[in-house]
Amino acid sequence: MTWAPEGTSATNKPGMPAFASAYARWINANGGLNGRKLKVLTCNDHNDTVSAAACARRAVKEKAVAVVGSYSQHSDAFLPHLEGAGIPYIGGYGVTNAEFTSPLSYPVNGGQPSLLAGLGKELGATCGPVSLVRPDTIAGDALPVMLDAGLTAGGHAEAVDQLAPEDATEYATQAEAALKKATGDAGGGGKGCVVTALGDRTSTFMDSFRRTRQGYPEVRTGTVLGSVDQTVINAAGAASGPFEGAYVTGWYPVASDPAWAPMKKVISEQAFSDTRIDPTDTGVQTTWIAYTVFRQAVESLDGGEVTAGAVRGALDDGLEVTTGGLTPTLRWEFTDELASIGFPRLVNADVTLQAVRKGRLVSARKGFVDVTKTLEKADVN
């Protein structure tokens, strides 16, 4: 099963279940998984606890062998059902801390913690005062700690925490407050910076930000993939928009990297006309990697019965999964360095540093940056 919110007033990730269905069609058209037909169930979590729990109960009822490549902010609602049935959660989006603590979770990226730590580390060396605009939600409450870990690693003061509703239609008040705080006298030298981590509402915020910044000294921006992609940058004015010059941290290489060719082949063969599926979308990319993990787990069973327990056992027994250069080799163990700060399942703390130059999202630094050491210093209490 693959689930994600669709048609809500907050974050929506319709491309994730849509790509999962396309992946199943592609796998089945090419002989299946070790000769077995792959059946993918999809579910809309509606960005609420009731629907998230309903999706998990359906996974249990229909005997899903794994939940793969999904997005939900409501891990407290769905993880207990999966854990009770022994169903592994492979490649969640990394939006909640529980995805890095549950023994049945197998994350493929470092989630929001790694993105913000990496961004903070980069901005710490170049920014004056930093203002973080983030959702006023439980998931959002964890974000300042991670950004501050990166900022302090770069020798900077902590960011000013600016809360914002995750489903607003405009953010003029929040944009003005962020600009005032970013042009204050707290922390560091250089130009002030505004960091946005509002998911789908980042583009709405930046629209308000662009109108509000008149009369303020120039302020740089920074954000994380998942809150912005090339389509958002284009809509905001491309090279003449507020994202120009912004640093953006991501989990994976830029969408133009040749390593994405196999994923793009699936899309071109099975979902070319499906406008929900964008190869530059981080959710779609995460779903591709999650199904890559699932495929290798099934193949490792050597034709044996495919059950939730068997898939979980393969992953727990030290299976090393390769992703064609999109991530480091993945292997899940509970004896990880980040267990000391409450993230024992976070096995991939690599991020990529990207920047908006001439209106295009490009690599700002070759390869990956490992933020494990930065996260180890995070004050999560």
TrEMBL record:
Keyword 4Fe-4S: no
Keyword Manganese: no
InterPro entries: Leu-bd, Peripla_BP_I
Gene3D superfamilies: 3.40.50.2300
Domain Leucine-binding protein: 7-322
Annotated keywords: Lipoprotein, Signal
Family: Belongs to the leucine-binding protein family.
Record protein name field: Lipoprotein
Organism: Streptomyces asoensis
